[in-house]
Amino acid sequence: MNTEMTTTTAPAPTGTTLLDVRGVTMRFGGLTAVNNVDLTVSEGEIIGLIGPNGAGKTTFFNCLTGLYVPTEGTVSYKGNLLPPKPHRVTQAGIARTFQNIRLFANMTVLENVLVGRHSRTKEGLFSAILRGPGYRRAESESHDRAMELLEFTGLAAKADHLARNLPYGEQRKLEIARALASDPGLLLLDEPTAGMNPQETRAAEELVFAIRDRGIAILVIEHDMRFIFNLCDRTAVLVQGQKIVEGDRETVQNDERVITAYLGAPLEGTGAAASTEADQ
Ligand SMILES: Nc1ncnc2c1ncn2[C@@H]1O[C@H](COP(=O)(O)OP(=O)(O)OP(=O)(O)O)[C@@H](O)[C@H]1O
Question: Whose C-alpha lies nearest to ligand 1, atom 25?
Answer without folding.
Answer: 53
